[in-house]
Amino acid sequence: MIQVDVRSRVPIYEQIVNSFKQMTMSGILSPDEKLPSVRDLSQELTINPNTIQKAYQELERQNIIYTKRGQGSFVNPNIQAINKEEKMGDLIEEIKRIIIESMYLGISKEEFLKLITSAYEDSSNGQEQQ
C-alpha cells in the first residue's frame, strides 16, 4: 500500500501524504473509503504514530480526507473534483513553462497556438483510435 523511504530527503509525513494523494488520484482509494487507523498504519510502516497523525492532519487540511470523531478518517466524497482542480493547476503551470520556453525560442503567439492545436488534434485522433 504505502512505501516510505527513510533515507529520502522528503520528510516521512510528506511521503505518506503524497502516497495517499496518488492513491486517490488513481482511484485506488474511493470516495468515503475508510483509511487505516493511525495506530494500524504506524505499526504496518513501523513509524511513530505522531508522524502518521501529522500526515493525516495535512491530508485533512488539503481536503483530501475528513475525520469522524471515534470512527476514523475517510476519503473526501468530493475527491474527484479536488483532484481535477489540482491537476488543472499543475497543467497551467506546465503550460506556462512551455510558453516561456517557446518565447525564448522566438516562436510567435500565432505559431505557438498552431503548434498547440496541431498537437491537440494529433492526440485526440490517437485517443479515438484506441
| Fraction of residues in H or I helices | 55-70%
Measured distance between first and last alpha carbons? 30 Å
Whole-number radius of gyration? 20 Å
Strand content: 5-15%
Overall number of domains: 2
Shape: elongated
Largest sheet: 2 strands, antiparallel
Sheet/helix structural class: mainly alpha
Number of helices: 5
Question: What's the count of strands?
Answer: 2
H/E topology pattern: HHHEEHH
CATH architectural name of the largest domain? Orthogonal Bundle
- Tell me, rounded to a whole number, the average pLDDT: 90
Poorly predicted sequence stretches spanning 5 or more consecutive residues? none
Q: What is CATH's topology name of the largest domain?
A: Arc Repressor Mutant, subunit A
CATH superfamily of the largest domain: Winged helix-like DNA-binding domain superfamily/Winged helix DNA-binding domain
- For the record, the CATH class of the largest domain is Mainly Alpha
- Strand arrangement across the biggest beta sheet: 1-2
